[in-house]
Amino acid sequence: MGIPIRSLLVASLVLSSIALHVAAKTLDPYKVLGVDKNASQRDIKKAFHKLSLKYHPDKNKEKGAQQKFEEINNAHEILSDEEKRKTYDLYGDEKGNPGMGAGNFGSHDFTGGGPRTTYFSSGDGWQTMGGQGNSKTFSFSFGGNPGAGGGNPFGFDLGDVFSNMFSGGSMGGNQHGGFAGSGKPSARTSSQHKNPVTIQEVTMQTFNKEIADQGITWLLLFYTQQAKGQFVLESVLEDVARSLDGAVRAGKVNCDIEKALCKKNGVSVGKSARLFIYSYSTAEKGSLHEYSGDSDAKSLKTFCQEHLPRFSRRVDINQFNFPSNAFPNLPEVLLLSTKKDTPTMWRAVSGMFHSRLTFYDAEVKDVSLPLLKRLGVKNVPALVGRTVNGEVQLLKDGISVKDLRSGIKELKTLLESFEKKNKKLASEQAKKHAKASEPKENKIPLLSASNFEETCGERAPVCIIGVFKSNKAKEKLESILSEISQKTLIRGQSYSSGNAITYALLDGNKQSAFLSSFDKSGYKSSDKLLLAYKPRRGRFAVYKGEVSMEEAERFVVSVLNGDVQLSATGQKPVLR
């Protein structure tokens, strides 16, 4: 089947348009950046950084530097976006304009009088020009879809034409077997890289919730729409955040919008964007430190590593023992590695957990050291912990990670598990302490022949005996005497020792003979009473009134202070 007449017509129009614009040519982005057409994204990024630094208007004041800088940015914008790069490689223009097109040709119009450049779009997909009588004209856009800005009024992509004319195979999903152009720009994301990172837009809420004193190191770009250098700094920031992924997070603050946040942090953006690191390198609380070095990834990465948290104390493993009283409320952790300096990932997690754990790290050259053997460490890196109850244990040895991000994730998992265990131990300790602090119940003994000498014998200066004849009376006297026994009731120095006074209960129904030693009637008419007995002197006093807490306490105090008259016992009381 031959080539459709419609396709030939459109193709001839395309070629005519190209011929009219041969003079206006686009600069080759590969030549601008000085890279090969097969260059990787890494090579493109590296070339861009080098040239953008060389021709940046803030540093290069030579004539033409500004224009060169813009050309470099434009070339990087095309080649860093895989869709735009593919389109450029196919058409010679990132917007899908075939041939040698100089930038975006726009829509081109043809009338009987030649090409025109201004037109109006009608609702039927045709673009109608005004002026020049009643002549009907039409126009079309190179590439693009109908209704998607610069649409094709013919209802099919020009890729169809080129496919039918110059290609015998399918290069796309087009119904004509050719490739279809697209007028949609592709968003520039870092997903083109192996380890994508996100430069987060930071608001006041984000800063307060995710950044301020959260123990995480952040790179923050402060900018305004008018400030220069944002694009360069943002690109470098992205590279560094990717290489330190897990240890450093990246964000940017638009000071045109977040004025209060910029003011709060004392940051004013003038002619150029400013880059800061929010870190904990010198204090418990986070603070901003401005970066003023060269705009390249290597310098910024070094700056970041210098400002990572330093909450881990470097120790000599040959002389190390966990301090027993440094931070009694915090568990302690020790990282063992072959590194001469504190590893980056350990510094990062020390910031995240600095208020919850105490950190140490040490270089290990020989795992046969006594301490390591005792802990069962066979391979390093290894992590050792000391719990809140003083138990030292190996958390894991032979830790293996593939990169910084996975290493930090592994350490966080181990530390969170260890922290959870310590919280449980701390809770159990608190319960034991609370139980130990509770006032012990003072059990009042029941007098018998076996304990009389110990309780109310010659060694007791004063013995207060609660005599009962019913269970109700017993419970009341036991409660009253138990509480009184825990108080300090002595006024003078006569009974200053711990054994100055003892307390006991006596069953009046079973020990009537014992009571007869104090009163011949044996106090038969009383359901309960208090008897104060001084065995060394053989004298006593009795309270037979209503026994309440106040009255009982008053009686005991009076006896101790000598305010009560004592009587002599008829005979030495004996329990049977």
TrEMBL record:
- UniProt xrefs under PANTHER family: DNAJ PROTEIN ERDJ3A
Residue ranges of domain J in the record: 28-92
Please list every transmembrane segment annotated in the UniProt record, as residue ranges: none
Per its UniProt record, what CDD domains does this chain match? DnaJ, PDI_a_family
Keywords for the protein's UniProt record, in alphabetical order? Chaperone, Coiled coil, Signal
Question: Signal sequence span per UniProt?
Answer: 1-24
Q: Does the keyword Signal apply?
A: yes
Question: Which regions form coiled coils?
Answer: 401-428
Q: Which organism is it from?
A: Triticum urartu
Give a Gene Ontology cellular component term annotated to this protein: endoplasmic reticulum
Q: Under what name is this protein listed? A: J domain-containing protein
Pfam families documented for this protein: DnaJ
